[in-house]
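ping. complex inputs:
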Amino acid sequence: MAETNDLYKAAVIGDTASVSGFAALGLSVFCETAPDKISKLIHRLAANNFAVIYITEPAAMLVSDTIKKYRSSKLPSIVLIPAIEGNTGEGMRALHEAVEKAVGSDILNQKGA
Amino acid sequence: MARLNVNPTRMELSKLKKKLESARRGHKLLKDKRDELMRQFMNLIRENRELRAEVEAAIADSNRCMAVAGSVMQSELLETALLLPKQEVELDVGEKNVMSVYIPVFKPKYRTSDTSDIYSYGTAFTSIDLDGAVSSLSEIFPKMIRLAEIEKACQLMADEIEKTRRRVNALEHIMIPDYEETIKFIQMKLSENERSTTTSLMKVKDMVLKQSHNYT
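pong. complex structure:
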């Protein structure tokens, strides 16, 4: 692929309180809470050389369909992170879903942590 | 099992035998691919789970500090402090081929190599909790990049495993039994034809003998 050597960017989406800290690291921070705006934002970022999009769990819940769309494409990688209100376990659930898809049953639960 | 709709001829029989052979070979290959994918996937999943727990804990820490910082500082000041970051990160994206699944590899590139450049503000008017929040985020950031990489890899591999499993099952439970049954059917039909030719020949021979020699 031709664009493999280009430099990509990383973005953070979520409510202001949860994501403002990431600005200091040099990530592009977007504060959005409306579902349609987040969804449009994700499409725009995906088309504009963003390789990684971190999104807070509550924001991700609003646009789960959009996130699912990008699940099977190589880029961007959309990663759920806990918001300031605390961890909802949504990110782990996505992991369990992947296991269930691949193995046929969720074997992570049986093994225990 | 459904028999394929073909003419019971020797031509079809040899064609089907060839097809069966390649189906068997494909089945074996795909099965190996599935097993290897599964092994790698399980390793990735394990790493993914540990990494996610770590990252989530660190972000929760940072969020706690941020909440405290937000409560002791005015929100405008807090916003201003983080408004203009000194540090900028870009990602060099490569790809790795794992059993013909192309998974992305991210390499972060920082604009400045100085680690203290994550503090985009003077320390005079900001709370120390803000420093804590930012530093714990910057510590975990390499792991967050790895998490992004590995989560994508897990998703892509889960897709591929599902596809491969379907193919293996289709070959094992549908294609190969169908071919076997059709081959058996053609062989039966051919030998039946042979027997019927033999019997009619015998019959004709009998008739000819009877006519010419009055032989019983």
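The longest strand of chain A covers residues 7-14.
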